Amino acid sequence: MAERSDPIIKFGILGCNSVARLCRAISSAPSATLHAIAGHSLDEATSCALGNGFTAKLYGSYEELLGDREVEAVYVPLPTSLHARWAAEAARRGKHVLVEKPPALDAEALGEIIAACEGSGVQYMDATMWMHHPRTAAMKGFLSDEEAFGQLKEMHATFTFNASPNFLENDVRVKPDLDALGALGDAGWYCIRSILWATDYKLPKTVTALPGIVFNEAGVIMSCGASLHFEDDLVSTFRCSFLSHLTMDIIANGSKGSLHVYDYALPFQETQASYYTNSRAWFLGGLAGWGPAPVEHTVTTDLPQVVLMVEEFCRLVRGIKRDGLKPEAKWPAISMKTQLVLDKVKLSIERGYVPVEVLDG
């Protein structure tokens, strides 16, 4: 969290699509302030600000906002098809870049964004919020405990929600020219990231899309799944969908223990989040039963995870601007690995659900 002497980072928002949560987070973060919003037109920016109760400079084009010298960082919630152009341009203008996930349509486009950030010495981060919750670090501690968890053997992740008819008809995430990745890019990104997180970001050897993919009439993925095969016989699976009941589960099974989370992407509550662990369980005597029962662990936080993400991003930006530090390389590396796996799932779907090799780029 920012100290009183720390400078406040001024954010600009490129686009007015689904900005409410991040704008409120920026406004609530001790280290940040919402300085400017840009839309396709000044009317769009004005409507966005008034509709959400935001106070900021308003611009009728993205170019105008990027020309504002007071803007130090930008959040890019535009449709995925526009990320590469505007996130890279923001970086070239010297703005630090927080981009909505998925950050790009493919690894090549993401590479353009990252290269622009590296060339300008600015920080890149994608907006995968749950990575910044203190529960995530606590869960990682359990997975790293050789005695309690052992060696990771399998990991299963889901992120599904039953979207409304209006969403399925009109949302940008179902339009091939705006967000052609559909459910794979929106919900599948979280699943893939959780699997890589559990494996210390080791890439799988192969990725195989699972049959039963559902497309809309425009050819955009509405529901899909895949299996990821790693070294040491580790197999992971995920399922993402716009057509099933809301779930955000991860299950990690080790040789000695297991982890279960019901709300990994977005906790049920803002100020606390739980996870369940079990170690050395076995069958009990008699006709039924096994134990011990899972243990619930609750982690509290003063700030919601989306605000914690903004705070971490601002901390890195301050380090670059004030202390002359280099941008943190972890975040673009993690983002690229997630994108690479997502690309391979899409390729496996296109090739008829055959295994596709994943190369560590």
What radius of gyration results from the CA coordinates? Answer: 21 Å
Terminal CA distance: 34 Å
Q: Within the CATH hierarchy, at the fold level, what is the topology of the largest domain?
A: Dihydrodipicolinate Reductase, domain 2
CATH class descriptor of the largest domain:
Alpha Beta
Largest sheet: 10 strands, mixed
> What general outline do the C-alpha atoms trace?
globular
CATH homologous superfamily (4th level) name of the largest domain: Dihydrodipicolinate Reductase, domain 2
| Total tally of structural domains | 2
GO molecular function: nucleotide binding
Domain GFO/IDH/MocA-like oxidoreductase: 145-259
Domain Gfo/Idh/MocA-like oxidoreductase N-terminal: 9-125
Family: Belongs to the Gfo/Idh/MocA family.
Précis, in short:
With 361 residues, the chain is an alpha/beta fold.
